[in-house]
Amino acid sequence: MKGFDIHPDMHHYLEASEQVPWTEDDLEANRQLWQSFCLNYNQPCPSTIQVENLTIPLEGADIPVRIYRPAAGIEPMPAVVYLHGGGWVLGTLDSNDSIAWGLAEGAGAVVISVDYRLSPEYPYPIPFQDCFGVVSYLSLQAASFGIDPRRIGVAGDSAGGNLSAAISLKARDQGHPTIAVQALIFPVLDTDIDLPSYIENRDAPGLTRADMIYYLNAYLGEEWSAADQYAMPARAADLTNLPPTLIHTAEIDPLRDEGKLFADRLAAADVEVSYRCAQRMTHSFIRARLQGESAAAEFAVITEFLRKQL
What we know:
Layout: H1 11-17, H2 27-41, E1 49-58, E2 61-70, E3 77-83, H3 97-107, E4 110-114, H4 126-140, H5 142-145, E5 147-157, H6 159-174, E6 181-185, H7 196-200, H8 209-220, E7 245-252, H9 256-268, E8 273-282, H10 293-309
Parallel strand pairs: 3-4, 3-5, 5-6, 6-7, 7-8
Antiparallel strand pairs: 1-2, 2-4
Helix pairs in contact: 3-10, 4-6
């Protein structure tokens, strides 16, 4: 954390994450290390949230999901499909459990967390197809899930923000399913690793420029320039007719500038967009919401936006 003016609410999380003994070339070991760290850092889901594990049958794969349902909800309820971060390489239903139940609690919506297949074993477009397939299935089968197909939103952090934005684009392009809202939390939207925020925060705690190069290679291979709009949503020439959008970046994050640029383009395309930058906070600040009032307030911006729009 040396050299960065980091908000005190981030210190506990960053200090703990810096103790993870990452290995150089063992992806499976790193996945287990990340899983263990997240499980130790998570907080139990409150009893006011009902939790159910299911599998969504798609062509070519059955995708595990975890459903978080506020017990006081009246059906049909609004729903948020949550797509976790981790550079398309890391993350499980368990690793992001606290974030998912926090969204359900704060937004007053059913949250469906998706265990999409990971790269590099399953590069683009497979993770995107998994996520889009789950959203489409939920829309078609909304009644059996007790959710309103007109009030389904998507939300994701980092790589999950990328997948959320891509889903909204494809849903617009093909006319279904209906996406009522999207919350893009420190999202990956393009491959320009020379933006000022990438240079300024090249060695930032939480996410470095080198980390992003690794993740982009894992998801896209080395041909970044060939990525289409569903791989990198900032490549879309047309951003009109997209759902109300929140883009929530972190000041100390290589991804900050691409989030702001995308928000500006959405506004220019007459999309209802809210942009917020979490000052003095780093990538993954939503994991610190239980450690301090300011981090909790940043998380509440997301849940209140979803609640209002849904």
